[in-house]
Amino acid sequence: MNKGLIFVISGPAGSGKGTVVAALRKLIPELGFSVSATTRAPRPGEVDGENYFFVSRDSFEELLRNDEVLEHTNYCGNMYGTLKCEAERVLTEGRDLILEIEVEGALNVKRLMPDDTVTIMLIAPDPEELEKRLRGRGTESEEVIKSRLSRASEELKLAPQYDYVVTNETGKTKECAEKIRGIIAAEHQRYSRMRSVVEEYIAYKK
Amino acid sequence: MNKGLIFVISGPAGSGKGTVVAALRKLIPELGFSVSATTRAPRPGEVDGENYFFVSRDSFEELLRNDEVLEHTNYCGNMYGTLKCEAERVLTEGRDLILEIEVEGALNVKRLMPDDTVTIMLIAPDPEELEKRLRGRGTESEEVIKSRLSRASEELKLAPQYDYVVTNETGKTKECAEKIRGIIAAEHQRYSRMRSVVEEYIAYKK
User: CB B202 to CB A130 under 8 A?
Assistant: First the structure.
């Protein structure tokens, strides 16, 4: 069985990342899920190892120091992260993993699992369109919009470290998800991942 | 407009290359065609620059020496080849080009146009299946079958120089063509080919 791969999807606010990833999960229902680790206390009914791996803050920080956390975030004072061993488990089952994370986390996943990670930067087709989307929400102040635009420009300075850049045209979520599906299919056919089939031929009836 | 790319497809006898490329052309009708150069004389009704570029053997050899021929072959004493300038013309129109050629030619295209060329090796899912296909034809002697198998194994030694390896399962031509379509879509999204969009963002409202 082919080993799975990690597809990391990043994109500035307004890129439509969440919608595209949801469409992608519909398109490829066999995508895997990894259980995250968190320092927050379990809620009634939550099962350790199923909903989350519940760990103490000390344990989480030790995992971080040991490079056992692929990416993490702090939300309402609690830490949440993807464990390397958990990702490995999903890939070994032959399933691909989608991680929707911001730029720094994305590059950290690539650093920790370079051979198994493919990075994709999702963006609006052009900055004018991004600005239109951010303004279209009608809820943000001029200041917030300007800071989002400048943040998008900062984030895109890291695009050269990404494998792929995919534009998400307005109203074309499905087309965008299809482009990512193409990338997923293609990456499994790279020579480095097909080596064992090639070696069978070379060894045949020698 | 996005520039086109050259997708070179190679595969040992029995890989089903011809059938897969035909299915791919059906799947992506907008693929481009390049007019080949040949040393053979025009037949009645054939138009220079339309059916072929008709050239003398001396001219063809000079084109070869000047690295202006991406790949060529000798058939019934006449030379046939793909001109670099003609491929460039198709790519500039924004069309992708499929070249179905053997291993040495493929690597030559990659050498002459490295940034625009993607190489794909097509193979039967395993050598046992390839042998079955070659025997299934029922027309070849034991000697011929053995020489084809050993040639396939030799050709696959060059697979590490290919970008992709795609298996063509028996009776699944369309699935195989779909995998190649995924590769075509993905390659257009590589960072190096999306650089101009990224640069627009970085320059925006500076």
Answer: no
